[in-house]
Input
Amino acid sequence: MEQEDENGKLLIDSVQLRFGDNVVLQSAYVTSYKGGVTGVLGRNGTGKSCLFKCIMGGIRPQNKYVRLNSEPRTDYGHIGLRVRYLPQERFIPSGMTLPQAYELYGVDYEGLVRFADQFDCFRNAKVKTLSGGECRLAELYLVLNSDVEFCILDEPFSNIAPVYDEKIRALINEQKANKGIIITDHIYEEILKSSDDLYLLRDGFTYQIHSRDDLVRLGYILA
Amino acid sequence: MTLLRKMELSFRYGSGYYVVAGLVSLCAFVIVGINSGDTEGLSEGIFLCKILKILSIPIILYIFRKFDRSSAIYFWLNLGISSVEYYVIPIVIEYVFFRLLVYIAPPLFTFLHLN
Output
């Protein structure tokens, strides 16, 4: 899904990250467009989550280049105002209630209740009382419905009951009209189905994937 | 997001830091206050408290990072707070509180002694 228009584009390039002698990323890049879903695949430990954390500023890489739209200089110190990230682990503070978190993010809590009615009874419950799956679903809905230009979803389907898979795919499709979405998951069939662009991270480099055969050739899946 | 809003949010995510660092500041307040009658002891007390305060900051931060969930920071980064601001804002606010306490301790304790 290549676009000539620089507006509605998030470019992450030349990301280099190492921890001591362990080189995680050597020259990683990902491009996401508004209106599209960009999938990022990779084996365990190839640096997918590290790449996303570098974008958000949670990890300081040796080098990175982030540009939004055609802006000559993007203020990526405050990138959270324009890009929201769903990490793999719980990220809503455990002492907070879901309506409090939704209010801070400017997302309507009633929307979550309509999406999954079980959340109707969690209005006064602290996040730490929710199960892993419930928390994951609430966090995913929160990030996807945020009024920002891009969303990064790190394993959004993990911990979530299969009954919600279809609803989540529909929500991603609905939200991609307003924003660009970068997504990674080990359930690669889901990513193949949902993505307009696909990348594979391997040995610290990014490879663009055009077909299932590319995944086999690069050793991500077996033939 | 304004700086005032970021400061307000820092009271939510940094509440643990504020409490522990605030206790250290209160201890400094008492030490400086007790020494306020002795001019030489006062200047030495203030100097010692400043050194201890500055040394306590990385220790308290390390303890909170050790016990905090590593992904919790992204909740706040998503709101537009930078990773530098996330740590610096509570440190600066609490340090200003410490300086204020050390500044008001001598006249306050002298006043209490006189009465």
Observations:
- The mean pLDDT of chain A is 90.
